[in-house]
């Protein structure tokens, strides 16, 4: 077994990854003892012009090398002669399936320890991974294969029927797209069936003296809550038209009001967890204006490696994940950065540990986070494009914020009633004042989410 920083004298090992950018990064990290080549994605698939699934024999698939990948496969075969093979495709079911096809086409046994897995592309992690290969996980391969067979069974059989039924060419059906289309149709039907219901609210501005005013909303009339278009309407006062609203306005006006209650209480707002794939896409859309596909392309580049003075290094962990889990080492590093950059008052007593709320979430990968949180956005800005910097900044801030203290607000509610023996009208005003930024110091107050 090689020690870290020690290389074989000749390129005795072939390492196969998906993309040329990833191959370039890993080649620099592993050195001359390894030859790193890219498969350029999937090398084999079901045939293009036939079903390729034997439904009579347990849905057995038939695979063939993709036309545009035949030169790639031949080049890999030549490169693999007389060499040890390691497969370092992405750590998910698609990557596992690519690795299984590569091993099969190169005449290697997938049960041999030839699969290398890592969730961040940094020299230390990559070098450790190549020294600890494992067999290809057949369960992951079967999962990808089942998904692909279902795609083919649905799409291959239904798409021609759609085209025939609607007398249009190039109509398609799919395992996912057809279900998504149905959800869209059902939602559109709900929107079309919705009948808006008119309602009115009353707003008042109360003089407090010394040129101060307090805006407040009518809250109750003779103990009956005013319905404001949300929640249950039963048992509440519904101002259904302008005439009713104006009539009530005349009753409300001209009366004297007094403050009957002022209640202030502290409200805590906890930080959001670190990013998953979907929450990264949502935040990049709302904060940066990036589409989901653009976000994933940029994240792919940040994951696969950036040239820095200390060498090529991936700046973020694997970007396709549903998990919010974070390694203990990364949590400790985040706490050290928070204390150094923001101060001890922003550091909670212990690390925040997040868990997925939904059952069945794949927890093989960590949340999306910087590979080294000490590598601040400003420290790497000149080595990144503008869009890479902005996305890395977003990921870094979200991860750091997830380990900071709650934001604290003073939330105040004021009730005003008309003066008299039997007050009829109650107005309500509420507001909050931020008294301690907490995690917002890093995450900002753009959407506070």
TrEMBL record:
Pfam families: Topoisom_bac, Toprim. Its EC number is 5.6.2.1. Residues 12-121 form the Toprim domain. Keywords: DNA-binding, Isomerase, Topoisomerase. Residues 137-449 form the Topo IA-type catalytic domain. InterPro entries: Topo_IA (IPR000380), Topo_IA_2 (IPR003601), Topo_IA_AS (IPR023406), Topo_IA_cen (IPR013497), Topo_IA_cen_sub1 (IPR013824), Topo_IA_cen_sub3 (IPR013826), Topo_IA_core_domain (IPR023405), Topo_IA_DNA-bd_dom (IPR003602). SUPFAM superfamilies: Prokaryotic type I DNA topoisomerase (SSF56712). Residues 264-283 are annotated as: Disordered. GO terms for biological process: DNA topological change. GO terms for molecular function: DNA binding; DNA topoisomerase type I (single strand cut, ATP-independent) activity. It is an enzyme of class 5 (isomerase). It catalyses: ATP-independent breakage of single-stranded DNA, followed by passage and rejoining. The keyword Ligase does not apply. Belongs to the type IA topoisomerase family. PANTHER family: DNA TOPOISOMERASE, DNA TOPOISOMERASE, TYPE IA, CORE. NCBIfam families: topA_bact. This is DNA topoisomerase.
């Amino acid at each position: 077994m090689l020690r870290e920083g020690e290389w074989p004298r000749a390129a005795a090992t072939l390492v196969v990854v998906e993309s040329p950018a990833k191959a370039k990064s890993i080649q620099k990290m592993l050195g001359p003892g390894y030859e790193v080549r890219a498969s350029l994605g999937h090398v084999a698939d079901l045939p293009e012009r036939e079903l390729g699934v034997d439904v009579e024999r347990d849905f057995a698939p038939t695979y063939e090398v993709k036309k545009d990948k035949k030169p790639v496969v031949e080049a890999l075969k030549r490169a693999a002669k007389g060499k040890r093979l390691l497969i370092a495709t992405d750590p998910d079911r698609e990557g596992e399936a690519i690795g299984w096809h590569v091993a099969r086409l190169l005449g290697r046994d997938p049960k041999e320890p030839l699969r290398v897995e890592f969730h961040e592309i940094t020299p230390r992690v990559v070098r450790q991974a190549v020294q600890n290969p494992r067999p290809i996980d057949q369960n992951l391969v079967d999962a990808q294969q089942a998904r692909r067979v279902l795609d083919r069974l649905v799409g291959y059989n239904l798409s021609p029927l759609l085209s025939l039924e609607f007398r249009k060419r190039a109509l398609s059906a799919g395992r996912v797209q057809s279900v998504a289309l149905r959800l869209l149709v059902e939602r559109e039907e709900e929107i079309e069936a919705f009948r808006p219901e008119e309602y009115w609210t009353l707003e008042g501005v109360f003089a407090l003296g010394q040129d101060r005013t307090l805006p407040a909303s009518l809250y109750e009339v003779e103990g009956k809550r005013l319905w404001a278009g949300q929640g249950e309407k039963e048992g509440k006062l519904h101002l259904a038209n302008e005439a009713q609203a104006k009539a009530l306005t005349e009753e409300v006006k001209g009366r004297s009001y007094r403050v009957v209650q002022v209640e202030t209480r502290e409200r805590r707002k906890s930080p959001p967890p670190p990013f998953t794939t979907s929450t990264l896409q949502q935040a990049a859309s709302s904060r940066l204006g990036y589409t989901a596909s653009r976000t994933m392309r940029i994240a792919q580049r940040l994951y696969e490696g950036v040239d820095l003075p200390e060498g090529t290094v991936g700046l973020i962990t694997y970007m396709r994940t549903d998990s919010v889990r974070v390694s203990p080492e990364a949590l400790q590093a985040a706490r050290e950065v928070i204390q150094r950059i923001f101060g001890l008052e922003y550091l909670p007593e212990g690390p925040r540990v997040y868990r997925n709320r939904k059952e069945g979430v794949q927890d093989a990968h960590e949340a999306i986070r910087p590979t080294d949180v000490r590598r601040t956005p400003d420290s790497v800005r000149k080595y990144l494009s503008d869009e890479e910097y902005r996305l890395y900044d977003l990921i870094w801030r979200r991860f750091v914020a997830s380990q900071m203290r709650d934001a604290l607000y003073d939330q105040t509610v004021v009730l005003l009633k008309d003066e008299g023996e039997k007050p009829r009208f109650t107005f309500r005003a509420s507001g909050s004042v931020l008294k301690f930024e907490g995690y917002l110091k890093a995450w900002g107050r753009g959407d506070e989410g």
